[in-house]
Amino acid sequence: MHRMEPCNTPACQSAREIFHELEEIYDEHNLYFQTIGSVLEAANILDVPHRLKLILTQPKNEIMVHCPVEMDDGSWQLFKGYRVQHNNVLGPYKGGIRYHPEVKLDEVKTLALLMTMKCALARLPFGGAKGALRIDPRAVSKDELMRVTRRLTSALGDNIGPDYDIPAPDVGTNAQVMAWMADTYINFAESSSKVTARGVVTGKPLEFGGSVGREKATGQGLVYVLDALLPGMNIELDKVSCSLIGYGNVGSWTARLLQQRGTTLKAVMDHTGAILNEAGIDAEALAEHVKTTGGVHGFADATAINNETFYSTPVDLFIPAALEQMVDLEHAERMQCKVLVEGANAPTTPRAERYLLEKGVEVLPAILCNAGGVTVSYFEWKQNRQSETWDEELVDERLKKIMTRSAERVLKMSKRLNCNMRIASYASAIEHIDKVYELRGVFP
Ligand code: GLU
After folding, report:
1. Which end of the chain is more exposed for a tag (fewer CB within 10 A), N or C?
2. By the 8 A CB rule, do 204 and 281 touch?
3. How far apart (Å, rounded) are the C-alpha atoms in residues 116 and 141?
4. Where in the chain is the domain with CATH 3.40.50.720?
5. Is the peptide bond preceding residue 444 cis, with omega within 30 degrees of 0?
6. Which residues line ligand 1 (CB under 6 A)?
7. Nearest CA to ligand 1 atom 4
């Protein structure tokens, strides 16, 4: 499609109609427009009340803060932070905070909308939110990272809280960042609420209110989804190969857990380059290499390849687990896989998805595949509220149940509506949100 031609897919048409009604300016190539378009396409198929479509089209709150921070050399920098709270009809807002130098408001809005859908699909008692700080976390010292994190937490003030909005790790943030956020928040909390105040964020270190299994949770959840859905496609995990984009938390855990299940990891690409080993890359050794060098480049037991070769390497499962929109049409045309498993949020452009579906590739959507992270976040939040510590067995067992049920829900909906898995996952989420709005009403 040429850039100037209006897009005529049901998703674009659905989004255009609502944006006209809201008198909002829109750009059909914008990620938020495209994502809400697919959500509205599902809403139209279900025929939910018009008010729900209006409500979901815009986030409830878009918060923007600016954090002045003194750097180690005595200079000052101003960092821009966002928190977008999309919807909270199901419970407190929930979603990660990412640190990235190029983050934009529309990206955060998209990710917040996806959190609403993700929590609703998994039937967690949470709404959807996302936060971001425009910073390159690799380019600052640990002390600078701590100061900016504390400053961001205090700037967000009462906009976050264990009963209101609960951040978590995302791209560029980790358990240490969550520990600083929780500590800052607790120090400002009333003395009567200091015990439960640690539940203000999830993904904390184990020693400071974190949950067993949270670190591997997204990868573990993804494997449980594959366990639930691959048999129906006649695919067995111990007989197949995969490739991965990204070797951060999601990518490296997915690779290591799939290796335990007998899957061959053929190729990996990240911000430092791409590598290939037809006989299989040792996921554990690669994780060690990435920990010490910062990326997959230079891994001894594989050949360096270019991006073109990476995309065209034949594999059964292709798993993007890095940033948004990395699989575009050009890449999709090269790809030779049976299933695209979305580990990252919104990794596939709509044009790439249409192309792959037409070619017969199954596309398993992110709000299903990567819901393991927020699910174990929910377990952590629950443990914090009850001052409990669950063991790994219990966490895994409960995670498996939630992931399996979510996968079954999506499959059932795709049969009921005769639609693809992405639209089915949104439809299941929307149907649940719609029921709750019907019960609660829109008040005042
Ligand atoms: N950032 C993760 C996600 O996108 C986890 C969110 C959470 O645990 O709240 O799903």
Report:
1. C
2. no
3. 34
4. 217-364
5. yes
6. 94-96, 168, 170, 202-203, 345, 370, 373-374, 377
7. 96
User: Which of the listed residues 374, 376, 380, 383 should we mutate to test ligand 1's pocket, taking the one with most ligand atoms within 8 A of CB?
Assistant: 374
In angstroms, the CA 254 to CA 317 distance is 12
Distance (Å, rounded) from C-alpha 347 to C-alpha 338?
A: 17
Active-site residues, by number, are 130
In CATH terms, the fold of domain 217-364 is Rossmann fold (3.40.50)
3-state secondary structure of 95: strand
Contact 166, 377 (CB under 8 A): yes
As annotated, the residues of the chain forming the CATH 3.40.50.10860 domain(s) are 59-198
10 Å Cβ neighbour count for 81?
24
Ligand 1 atom 7: the closest Cα is on which residue?
374
What is the C-alpha separation between 109 and 128, in angstroms, rounded?
10
CB 341 within 8 A of CB 364: yes
Residues 6+ apart with CB under 8 A from 382: 388
Quote the CATH superfamily of domain 59-198: Leucine Dehydrogenase, chain A, domain 1 (3.40.50.10860)
* CA 146 to ligand 1 center in whole angstroms: 21
From CA 315, how far away is CA 437, in angstroms rounded? 43
What tens-digit pLDDT sequence spans the chain (444 residues)? 445 578 899 999 999 999 999 999 999 999 999 999 999 999 999 989 999 999 999 999 999 999 999 999 999 999 999 999 999 999 999 999 999 999 999 999 999 999 999 999 999 999 999 999 999 999 999 999 999 999 999 999 999 999 999 999 999 999 999 999 999 999 999 988 888 899 999 999 999 999 999 999 999 999 999 999 999 999 999 999 999 999 999 999 999 999 999 999 999 999 999 999 999 999 999 999 999 999 999 999 999 999 999 999 999 999 999 999 999 999 999 999 999 999 999 999 999 999 999 999 999 999 999 999 999 999 999 999 999 999 999 999 999 999 999 999 999 999 999 999 999 999 999 999 999 999 999 999
Q: What are phi and psi of 3, to 5 degrees?
A: -55, -30
Phi, psi of 276 (to 5 degrees): -140, 140
